[in-house]
Give the backbone structure.
Amino acid sequence: MKAVLGISFNYHDSAAALIIDGKIVAAAQEERFTRLKHDDSFPRHAITYVMEEAGISGADISLVAFYEKPFIKFERLLETYHAFAPKGIVSFVKAIPVWIKEKLFMKQTLKEELIKMGIQAKLTFPEHHLSHAASAFYPSPFEKAAILTIDGVGEWATTTISIGDKENITLLRELHFPHSLGLLYSAFTYYCGFRVNSGEYKLMGLAPYRIISGRTARYERLIKEYLIDIREDGSFLLNMKYFDFATGLKMTNNTNWEALFGIPPRIPESEVSQEYMDMAYAIQCVTEEIVLQLVSTAKELTGCSNLVMAGGVALNCVINGRIEKSGIFDNFWIQPAAGDAGGALGAALATWFIYLNEKRTCEFPDGMSGAYLGPSFSEKEIQNVIRKTNAVAVRLDKIQLYPRVANLLNDGMIVGWFQGRMEFGPRSLGNRSILADPRNTGMQKKLNLEIKYRESFRPFAPCVPEEEMCRYFDLNKPSPYMLKIAEVNKVQCISLSSNYERLYYLERLYTERSYLQAITHVDFTVRVQTVSKETNPSFHALHVAFKDLTGCSVLVNTSFNVRGEPIVCTPEDAYRCFMNTGMDYLVLGNWLFAKKEQLSSPSSD
């Protein structure tokens, strides 16, 4: 037996992944155990979990792979400060002591932390974008594929095009810092008042609220004329006069941006005015244009019919929907943990196939096991939580459970659904989910305000059995990881007045536009998860029960957490979240909890 442990940490989204004899056995983010959103600390809990899941000890680990090369990253830091000097002296004084004290000695730190856990294996350090590329290619179902990785920055690379062929990955093109599409998008995230590295989803969700006017076109023109020089092959140069991320303490030069766009940076948590919605739409359009050009270049360079993607930008489901619809590639697969957490998995895979030169066998539909790679919990562990919390619950067998929950959803109830192994990556895919009826016209507002405690404009995603997807959505291929948008079929939509797209955003949001109102975004798109009977039979069975009762196969599926917290991991996490929100019912395995029957609310963290 050969076991390779992959880890990522020290920036954001620390994680651990375990490969045994070439198969992905387990993977999880550290935040799920520590309950600290985007936790960047050494992934001690995640490492402990993946070893326990495999039933091995530290002595059984053959190699440990770290997801990037710290020395090259330090080189980039020094060269960047030198290039921009004397600008950036404040940032330099803050950053360098941390590097000298901690990050520069990452190899030694890793060894020391691993020894504490009984792991004394040899270390490997694949480059950051190779880790992303490996995470995208090796679990994919393709023997040969073009590989596109796009994120903020690794060591130097911000975008790469490679080709994967059996066990080999060959780099073809590379774009270097500070010219970064991920950082460009994050700069707009910051300027529109959202948090970098977590608010990019909000910016993407805000974009459809733009009003058709000259302002969106003007913003797009200003971006192309002043912020970025785009080449035909999708490569580009950023005008660093407008950005402070290279050497400063913020993303943008606010003075220059305000002079250019005519609006100041939005104050976080303030009302979102129309100007910022139009700005979100403009940068989304520019980003889509660049990615599609990069996709075309990847096709020209590789001649492949298959494309795989990873890196933070690969989580932009609007872009992914456009790639799929473009038909540039016949087949398209995205790593569900496309961000830095997935880098831990990619580092382990790169070490297995490149460093150890092991042979690869493609798995179908892919090698990710539906992304259900996290911990599961036994009946006994659920019963322990019931006793510990003095909870009131009833146990149902599966034959009783699915129709009972279907009835609750049909009655307008919101249900926390906790089953099996936790998902790896940012999406809940039916094992750590909050579920509701998409036909309920008030459900989107209720979920945002009473359950998730987040901005009213944010949309919710549908889940649908794979065999039923074409009935509701413009999809011709499954979307199991909720990473692509599609349009709602016209038969599900309601005719609207001609001035709909000129309405104030809240008026547009609450205008009834679909028979699946709770999951239909204002532009009639959805971020779909298709549910497979083979991959998740329990979740599929619930959909069947809901269809048998209502004639509708679709459910609302949102992550089992509230704003600012990670997705729940344990039954205790789930019960606490259930009790501290407006959820009506909770299902833990076969146990059903009704809110009105609970005796008291547990203390909130």
